[in-house]
Amino acid sequence: MATKPKKDPAVDNRINLSEHIDAFLKSGGKVKHIPSGISGQTTTTGPRQIVLSHKSNA
After folding, report:
1. How many whole angstroms separate alpha carbon 58 and alpha carbon 45?
2. Is the pTM of this model over 0.85?
């Protein structure tokens, strides 16, 4: 029995991303260049780290 060749998921992701970008641009979307050092963070108060779980040390 022959085995199927393994697909590289990275190739599929690049193709899928490329298709999404093409559709976005064809629909009139525009890409902005964001200079280095600019943040999407809108507030400086509160926690800045993502907490994945609150494990108790009990």
Report:
1. 30
2. no
Distances 48 to 24, 41, 45, 53 between C-alpha atoms, Å: 31, 9, 8, 15
SS3 24: helix
CA-to-CA dists, residue 54 to 32, 45, 46, 51, 57, angstroms:
38, 21, 17, 7, 10
pLDDT tens, residue by residue, 21-32:
999 999 999 988
1 pLDDT band (50/70/90 cuts)? low
Residues 32 and 10: their CA atoms lie apart, in Å, by 25
| Helix, strand, coil in percent for the chain, rounding step 5 | 30, 0, 70
Tokens in use for 23?
A: 């559709």
